[in-house]
User: Which sequence fits this backbone?
């Protein structure tokens, strides 16, 4: 695995690079000036899921940073033209419902590739971040925002309930259910400060894209220096904890660590602690996509 291989994952809508050791930078990069900036069409979200699933199998990577390559925008959400496909479906309601369900499920699967990724994903949001942006951001492990960001759970304004992840994940993220409901029902704009208030983001960085991306890269560098086995396991156990009882999670953790406690990374970390030297952890084995 090399940084060149990561660069090769770049496509029409996504730019991939490695600006730091063991770090993959994934940037939304739809620059068609005739369209809203970083507005998702089906090809965009399909490419997005494909890129994350490819990164998930790369042993060189230990942490992913997700950002936008466009200075003033994170994402304008879904391109409403993408919904025109629904008009081509079967006219019979039952058959049409099955086709729409498949459309939504595949869309959800593409965005959930962030959560499937075994490596931590840090998002650096800035500028306009509406609609689908919230589905994407809420799927990330660590969420930072520039002070200039403008969020909106926009879906009710176009006549539908958000269906790609915001309503599934944000209530579990936030300790302020009242505000989550208010923002979802009203579709009003909200600031980085309110996003931090509900727990959507953990840090607000003064400035715009460059400033928040810089902070995200600092955190990514710190994570990339840790044992990849320990970090990968921690993500898996935290996600399991979110969706299961304490008892179930403890049982799962015991099973997981019955294998992972055999890692050489523990010996390397202890050796580094004694010698006051930086640990050198071996690279992971190549992993199958959708681990």
Assistant:
């Amino acid at each position: 695995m090399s940084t060149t291989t990561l660069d090769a994952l770049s496509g029409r809508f996504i730019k991939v690079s490695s600006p730091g050791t063991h770090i993959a930078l994934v940037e939304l990069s739809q620059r068609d000036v005739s369209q809203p900036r970083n507005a998702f069409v089906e090809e965009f979200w399909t490419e997005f899921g494909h890129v994350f699933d490819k990164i998930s199998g790369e042993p060189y990577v230990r942490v992913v940073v997700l950002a936008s390559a466009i200075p003033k925008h994170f994402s304008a959400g879904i391109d409403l033209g993408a919904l025109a496909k629904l008009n081509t479906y079967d006219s019979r309601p039952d058959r049409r419902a099955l086709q729409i369900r498949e459309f939504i499920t595949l869309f959800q699967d593409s965005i959930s590739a962030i959560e499937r990724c075994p490596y931590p994903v840090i998002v650096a949001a800035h500028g306009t971040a509406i609609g689908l942006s919230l589905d994407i951001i809420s799927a990330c492990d660590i969420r930072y925002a520039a002070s200039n960001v403008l969020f909106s759970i926009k879906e009710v304004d176009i006549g539908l309930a958000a269906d790609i992840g915001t309503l599934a994940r944000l209530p579990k993220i936030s300790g302020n259910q009242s505000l989550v409901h208010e923002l979802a029902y009203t579709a009003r704009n909200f600031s980085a400060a309110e996003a931090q208030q509900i727990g959507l983001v953990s840090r607000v960085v003064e400035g715009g894209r460059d400033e928040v991306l810089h902070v995200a890269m600092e955190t990514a560098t710190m994570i990339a220096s840790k044992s990849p086995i320990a970090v990968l396991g921690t993500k898996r156990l935290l996600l399991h904890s979110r969706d299961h009882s304490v008892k179930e999670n403890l049982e799962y953790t015991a099973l997981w660590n019955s294998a992972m406690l055999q890692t050489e990374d523990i010996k390397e970390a202890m050796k580094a602690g004694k010698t006051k030297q930086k640990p050198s952890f071996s690279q992971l084995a190549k992993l199958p996509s959708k681990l």
Notes: Residues 228-275 form a domain with the Lyase 2-enoyl-coa Hydratase; Chain  A, domain 2 fold (CATH 1.10.12.10). The longest helix spans residues 93-111. The chain has two domains: 3-224, 228-275.
